Amino acid sequence: MRNILMLITTAVITTGCSKSVDERADEYTEASFTLCGSKVQSYSQGDDGKIRILCENDSYFLVKDQASLAYMHELNGAYCKGKGFSAFHERSRYFTFTCEGDRNFNIPK
């Protein structure tokens, strides 16, 4: 019984700490430039896989997954000139976003 308890505890600890500190720091830094165009106030990833980001300028983003975050990074560079988003919505067939500076876009997936 004790061995089973040890195995379960080890599995929970390993799963909870699967990403290294460097990997989490890279994601946090990338979010600063990808979404906010400024500093990130808070960054978290829930059990559902969604990434929640609150920017220093009070912008808030809920990102579906890492693939969406990577694509947002590309959109920021191509359409917002790296300044970040003031709003971003992922829909079933489109990405709708507003760049800092009030330029609006509706891009098909």
Automatic annotation (TrEMBL):
PROSITE patterns linked: PROKAR_LIPOPROTEIN (PS51257)
Official protein name in the record: Lipoprotein
Originating organism: Photobacterium sanctipauli
